[in-house]
């Protein structure tokens, strides 16, 4: 190496500097590409994301409780709440959610498989402690708006871009008694397909 | 030969650097897309459709279920105000002004985000039962030994982090969030 340097004289250091710069640039560009690729692929391959964690606990056509106890259960949920989940599929029909709970904080969130909360509200939005909500996809929403009936204007309509959802119901329950109350509220809450809210299609068009 | 070696070295370096930098940005708690208020950190974009790819990757990795914009905001502290790890060998005081929320909770969780137990329940307090002074300020003691006033037991977690969740809060939006005055976490006596 040293012998070569001397033989080629002064032009060599400049040349080697260029090679080092080229390799460095190559490494940085490659690292950048791998960095971006890794970031974008994490959500695709993640098996422990929020959706995968709560999906096994989500009930069909009703809310079921997500365990949050210190020994096991789903991480990242407030332990002072009773948390419920209900799987919704809008492909066939819109879904209806009703909750009746007074004198406590509670909230409802619609969660999709991309770990995005597409819609959320809390008990302040509910009228006298009762929530009547319809979840629709964009096509159903367009149809509802076209044939807006008076019944619909009384409910909250939440539009979700995707058909597959989990509705999360969080009820503030800091004490044993409050937890029992919350479980009762959750059992009485509805989370059902609601085909009847759609306007009846007349065959004549 | 040398050029192949150089290429292999460059590829290995690129792979290492790329994966390492990706890991740094998505580990929990990630430095990207974070709002910092002293030792408290918040991710107001987490779980919204506005979230950037970094936040999405972080959420997918941590498995945390964020609070929606209509629900509230979570703030996390990993250290005390001198940036030392929170350990049950020491007592701590969380003191400050009541945050702008209809309801808020203080909970302890372990490194994996699981809530910490406490005799007869969980290591957590909610604002509805919190004792406050006349000027609206509060003081919570974290200790393994029972204390008068607001107390959360740390006996079931050797290391822990503190989570404050603000429900129905105005603090989610930009300026409200950056001017939010969060409580101080001061270390007391250590065993």
Which helices and strands occur, and which strands form pairs?
The complex is a heterodimer of chains A (205) and B (191).
Chain A: H1 2-8, H2 11-45, H3 50-54, E1 59-60, E2 64-65, E3 81-89, E4 95-100, E5 106-111, E6 117-122, E7 130-136, H4 138-146, H5 150-153, E8 156-159, E9 164-172, H6 176-188, E10 190-193
Parallel strand pairs in A: 1-3, 7-8
Antiparallel strand pairs in A: 2-3, 3-9, 4-7, 4-10, 5-6, 5-9
Chain B: H1 2-26, E1 35-37, E2 40-42, H2 53-62, E3 72-77, E4 90-97, E5 101-109, E6 117-118, E7 121-122, E8 124-126, E9 137-143, E10 150-153, E11 161-169, H3 174-178, E12 184-190
Parallel strand pairs in B: 9-10
Antiparallel strand pairs in B: 1-2, 2-3, 3-11, 4-9, 4-12, 5-8, 5-11, 6-7
Characteristic terms for this protein:
heterodimer, A: 205 residues, alpha+beta, Immunoglobulin-like, 2 domains, 6-stranded mixed β-sheet, 4-stranded mixed β-sheet, 27% strand, extended, B: 191 residues, Jelly Rolls, 6-stranded antiparallel β-sheet, 3 helices
What percentage of amino acids of chain A are in beta strands? 25-35%
Helix residue percentage of chain B: 10-25%
Q: What is the residue-mean pLDDT of chain B, rounded to a whole number?
A: 87
**CATH architecture designation of the largest domain in chain A:** Sandwich
Query: Count the helices of chain A. How many?
Result: 6
Taking the sheet with the most strands of chain B, its summary is: 6 strands, antiparallel
Order of secondary-structure elements of chain A: HHHEEEEEEEHHEEHE
Strand content of chain B: 25-35%
Question: Would you kindly provide a written description of the structure presented here, covering whatever features stand out?
Answer:
- The complex is a heterodimer of chains A (205) and B (191).
- Chain A is α+β, with helices and mostly antiparallel strands and 205 residues long.
- Chain A folds into 2 domains: 2-45; 50-197, Domain of unknown function DUF1254 (Immunoglobulin-like), CATH 2.60.40.
- Chain A has helices at residues 2-8, 11-45, 50-54, 138-146, 150-153, 176-188; strands at 59-60, 64-65, 81-89, 95-100, 106-111, 117-122, 130-136, 156-159, 164-172, 190-193.
- In chain A, strands 1, 2, 3, 5, 6 and 9 form a 6-stranded mixed β-sheet that branches. In chain A, strands 8-7-4-10 form a 4-stranded mixed β-sheet.
- Chain A starts with a helix and ends in a 12-residue tail after the last strand.
- The model of chain A is unreliable at 3-9 (pLDDT under 50).
- Chain B has a single domain (31-190), classed as Sandwich (Jelly Rolls).
- Chain B is 21% helix and 33% strand.
- Chain B contains 3 helices and 12 strands; from the N terminus they run H-E-E-H-E-E-E-E-E-E-E-E-E-H-E.
- In chain B, strand 6 and strand 7 form a beta hairpin.
- Chain B is globular.
- Chain B starts with a helix and ends with a strand.
